[in-house]
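quick one before i forget lol
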Amino acid sequence: MNILSIQSHVAYGHVGNASATFPMQRLGVDVWPIHTVQFSNHTGYGNWKGRVFDGGMIDEVMEGIAERGVLANCDGVISGYMGSADIGHAILSAVERVRAANPKALYCCDPVIGDVGRGVFVRPGIPEFMREQAVPAADIVTPNQFELELLTDVKIKTLADAHRAVEALRDAGPKVVMVTSLETEETPADSIDLMAADAKGSWRVRTPKLDVSVNGAGDAIAALFFTHYLRDESAAAALSKAASSIYGLLRRTKEAGSREILTVAAQDEFVTPSQVFAPEAI
């Protein structure tokens, strides 16, 4: 399997491509990463060095890949944080090129916009770009609860609200939706829910809530879910496998007291999770 991953990248730590690429490789995927930025570390540290690339650079790299004659072998494209609409347009152009070469290829958009407690943390215009262009173009989207609410204008308090929001997002174009960090009135205080839906139905996976705050977990779970969905063509199976792997990864990270997610040290969790959480039909 070959996946084109267009995301940010850091030299130290694990966010963006530095969080998504290795888990996919560990599962046997040949990943073609294109970096939208090259930073020394993630911005949560408060200071960093490096540069933001523009859409023209992505177009240029895509042209080089196309010249190798391999786009027909690309099974999917995944994107994450978009620093500007310029980057977004280049990503959608890349998706179009891959689909032209391989009509069966799928596009997974992780619509990074913001989170509970932090609010919107992307540049002005990005939420609108996600809603109006990126999400409708995607086959799969992987928002957190905050992003799902923002994209659908549905306030989520109950599981029924979450289901209504997911179906509204599916009506906008994507056939598969996976929601992370879901907390409704039905979610116990010591747990966290994840939800996925496709044409076959909707499912929930509930895991214990871990007192850990690290960057990059969302990038990793989107990549894992996408990989498993491409293989199994089942949102339920992909949700269970991705959630189980991320729980193990975060548990190991918490036990080590690490500020950076232990992508390499806990890599066995990607292949054989130490604890498997079964999907529940909802």
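fyi The CA atoms of residues 72 and 100 lie 8 Å apart.
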